[in-house]
Amino acid sequence: MAKHLFLLPGDGIGPEAIGEVRKIIAHMNDAMSADFVTDEGLVGGCAYDAHGAAISDADMEKAMAADAVLFGAVGGPKWDSVPYEVRPEAGLLRLRKDMELFANLRPAICYPALAAASSLKPELVDGLDILIIRELTGGVYFGEPKEIIDLGNGQKRGIDTQIYDTYEIERIAGVAFELARTRKNAVCSMEKRNVMKSGVLWNQVVTEIHKAKYSDVKLDHMLADAGGMQLVRAPKQFDVIVTDNLFGDMLSDVAAMLTGSLGMLPSASLGAPDGKTGKRKALYEPVHGSAPDIAGKGIANPIAMIASFAMCLRYSFNMITEADNLEKAIANVLDQGIRTGDIMADGCRQVGTGDMGDAILKEFAGLSA
Ligand code: NAD
To answer: How many domains does the chain have?
Structure first.
């Protein structure tokens, strides 16, 4: 059956990075009968230039209808002064909101060849493979009231509200347990139940749904501050970490630094399964931005984007062997000492975006043959 991919390359290095994924898709169609059908749209600054909006309604409809969306990056100095509601990032926020992408998956994988580039000792991160699942549409970033009020005595009060309902915790925990089953079968849930009521509820709901539906998966609970400490002390103790929007924002950035460069980090955002087909809406994107400082120079690292496509194969199409092979191809190329500038090291060979993409494709084709 045809698999519909909607590509949104965006601005800056987004199009360069997605260009390397396009080569892999073409190979999979030609040599592996993958039957991908691709369409392409505009998001971010380029969409504003064309339509006066960060994403058009027509492209939004295509994103909603696709099996998966591949997103490059948005933004750049050219659009710094456009009105707030049509700024480039508004395109990504609309995609997340309209597609109801409540689960953000951020893997932190440390390829052995890059262990020395981590800010931690190589032995702590060599072979690291953890998955942080962050709740993306609730919590303190969205809760009301959210305001600054004037107290009238020369003082002001800033208010944000942390709110989680049972269903929000159940659905994100469900994603964590299901994905753990495809990995090392262990989930660590992080909250602050010692000081936050929402943390008490989070802990209860995760415990209950675990008992009711996922008791085959190992479950631990950790206070989020202790979790942050353990992430930099002994990160390999974790398999899947599930946490709320705020703690997930911070903990996933901490975990990101364990693995070296921004140019290496993929992510996925998933919605609820469709009642009829069971398929989840999904968007895959690198963690990095549009990198205006290097855009158009052909030197961007395409690995975060290619690894995001590997996540797409795994989570949207259940193409596990192909996803494993693509990730292995990335590891092999790094083992061969092939590097873009951002991850360059002594004794390695520096290449540009296209050559890095070609090297990964060659390895992938070999592994898939
Ligand atoms: P950035 O991630 O674009 O770049 C930070 C630094 O990392 C830069 O020096 C850049 O050259 C380098 N870098 C990033 N990705 C790289 C890659 N693949 N290969 C090699 N080097 C890479 O973050 P920034 O500079 O803070 O933001 C630039 C623009 O991107 C801004 O307009 C910002 O709003 C936007 N942004 C967009 C997203 C997104 O689209 N999801 C995310 C973050 C920032």
So the answer is: 2
